[in-house]
TrEMBL record:
Keywords: Hydrolase, Nuclease. This is 5'-3' exonuclease domain-containing protein. InterPro entries: 5-3_exonucl_a-hlix_arch_N (IPR020046), 5-3_exonuclease (IPR002421), 5-3_exonuclease_C_sf (IPR036279), DNA_polI_H3TH (IPR020045), FEN (IPR038969), PIN-like_dom_sf (IPR029060). It comes from the Eukaryota. One of its GO terms (biological process) is DNA replication, Okazaki fragment processing. GO terms for molecular function: 5'-3' exonuclease activity; 5'-flap endonuclease activity; DNA binding. Signal peptide: none annotated. Residues 1-216 form the 5'-3' exonuclease domain. It comes from Aphanomyces astaci.
Length: 240
């Protein structure tokens, strides 16, 4: 793997629009441990020493910036590899057309393309992953799911027939099961709110031009030293 461009993305402490709209957003997520929290300033210093570009926009989630840069990269003809363990990025994956987007889950060292994502989410398109999760619910507190529950098979059928969650909610008269139709109708506002929390925003302005991510700008010698000898990381920065 020889990337042409590289960038690291971070959240900020500033409250995001999702949290403003729904104070329970990510309510079930465990608080970051102090040991991990103390590593962030050091990480920033190391990245600065290596001249690795960092994108961090107050009040904007890193996930949305990644989605926006992914879209811009595809439009520029670049393949993209998102390095993250976060399943939110399933919705970006596309490997059946060029250019491609893959997800590298570093804990398991698994490079996931579209086929691998489909195996995990039940056969529907990766772009419909947030739609499916909104109907089914998740364990992280982003969405409670449709009250009363819904099977994965039925949720996939509804979403693929309608073309997504929002089209489904706009055409509930087409849902044959009256009880299900009534539950969807009664939960429309909640489901739309959950969808806004789950769907990544790929339309944001880019604070750093794509060309500034070029690998030629990165201190590759320092990066190589760090990868071969992590003890080079001192209290505040990488000494190279």
């Amino acid at each position: 793997m020889k990337p042409h461009r590289v960038c690291v993305f971070f959240d900020t402490p500033v409250i995001t629009q999702r949290k403003k709209e729904d104070p329970t957003y990510k309510a079930k997520r465990e608080r970051m441990g102090d040991a991990l929290r103390r590593q962030f300033p050091l990480t920033g210093s190391v990245l600065k020493s290596l001249a690795v570009p960092v994108v961090q926009v107050p009040g904007v989630e890193a996930d949305d910036m990644i989605a926006s840069y992914t879209k811009a990269s595809l439009e520029s003809g670049f393949n993209v590899i998102v390095v993250s363990n976060d399943s939110d990025f399933f919705q970006l994956v596309q490997s059946n057309a060029s250019p491609t987007v893959s997800l590298y889950k570093f804990r398991t060292r698994w490079l996931m393309g579209q086929d691998q994502v489909l195996q995990l989410i039940g056969g529907t398109s990766p772009r419909l992953h947030p739609d499916l999760r909104v109907l089914r619910g998740d364990q992280w507190g982003k969405t409670p799911g449709l009250p009363g529950g819904i099977s994965k098979e039925l949720a996939v059928e509804l979403l693929e027939t309608a073309g997504g969650l929002l089209p489904l909610l706009e055409s509930l008269d087409n849902v044959q099961d009256e009880a299900l139709r009534n539950r969807l109708h009664a939960s429309t506002d909640m489901l739309k709110r959950s969808y806004r929390a789950s769907k990544l925003d790929d339309s944001l302005a880019l604070p750093i031009p794509l060309q500034d991510f070029a690998m030629g700008r990165v201190n590759q010698a320092g990066l190589a030293l760090l990868l071969t000898d992590p003890t080079l990381v001192k209290t505040h920065a990488l000494e190279v």
